[in-house]
Structure formats: structure tokens, C-alpha cells
Amino acid sequence: MTGLSEKQKLLVDELENQLEVLQVGTESLIYSYEKCQKIGLKKVYSFQELESYEALTSRFARIADILTQKLFKTIFMLLQESPGSFIDKVNLAEKFYIIDSGDELMKIRELRNEIAHEYRLAEIQQIFSDVLDYTKTLLAMVQTTERYAKDKFFHNPIKFD
């Protein structure tokens, strides 16, 4: 990483830290996902099953936030890009091939927002179903983003002007 400014070095260090946090969080998400797959979708859940699903939805939302709010921000700062809105971030991530599908990321963001807000009991079933459906997509995005970041900034660091 020779030739980087002090600010760029700090950003690369921050990116490395964020990738470590993302890895730990992803392992927890996978654990909860596998557990909830075994439970399946039901009309009535035991308290223990609800607790498992609550952990899954919380971990899903946290990973979505780390990916879109922290990791993307740092990557874009290193690329000297400054997207404004969330849709701008999604479009830029797709443009740079950080993710495969901006539409899928928008769906994940909508689901994250549903999880973050108080939802009614009648909506829980749909949220649990959607989180089970979109966890693999989120995990794939985490993997492609990690690969992009490592290839771009660690294995063959880009040269900054």
C-alpha cells in the first residue's frame, strides 16, 4: 500500500475492520438461518422458535446495514465516489460489479426496513418467509462484496492519483 495518503491508509484499515465484523456477523446469520430452516414456517410458534426467528431477522437486518451503510460507504470513499441516496449507492455498486443485482438489493433494503420498524403480528409470517427467501441472496452479495474489496484494495491495491 505504498503511495497512499494517510487518509487512504486509514480508509483501507477501516475497510479491513468492517470486513472482519461482517465475517463474524455472517457466521451468526448462517447459524440462525439454518436453525430457522429446520423450524420452518408455521401459523403458531413456540417462544423458543420465535426467539430463533427474532435472532434471524435481527442478524439479517444488521448484515444488510453493515454491507450497505458501512462497507459500501468506505469502498466508495476509496474509489473517490460520493453517491448521495441509497438508490445511487445501489446503482454505483451494480456499475462497479460489486453486486450482481441492484433490484435484489433494493428488496433486501425494503425487508430490512420492515424488520426495523414495529410490525404487526399478522405480518410476522410474511417477514419470516421473506427473510428465509432473501438470506441466500444477501449472503451472496456479502461474498461478492468481500471478494471485490479484497481484490481491489488488498491483493492488487489500486493506485491513487
How many angstroms does the end-to-end distance come to?
A: 13 Å
* Major pleated sheet: none
Shape: elongated
Topology, number of strands: 0
Task: Walk me through the structure.
The protein has 161 residues and is mainly α. Helix content is 78%, strand content 0%. It has one domain (6-155): Up-down Bundle (Four Helix Bundle (Hemerythrin (Met), subunit A)).
Short description:
The chain is mainly alpha-helical and 161 residues long. It contains five helices and no strands.
Write the layout of secondary structure elements.
Layout: H1 6-39, H2 47-78, H3 86-95, H4 102-116, H5 121-155
Keywords:
Four Helix Bundle (Hemerythrin (Met), subunit A); mainly alpha; elongated; 161 residues; single chain; 5 helices; disordered C terminus
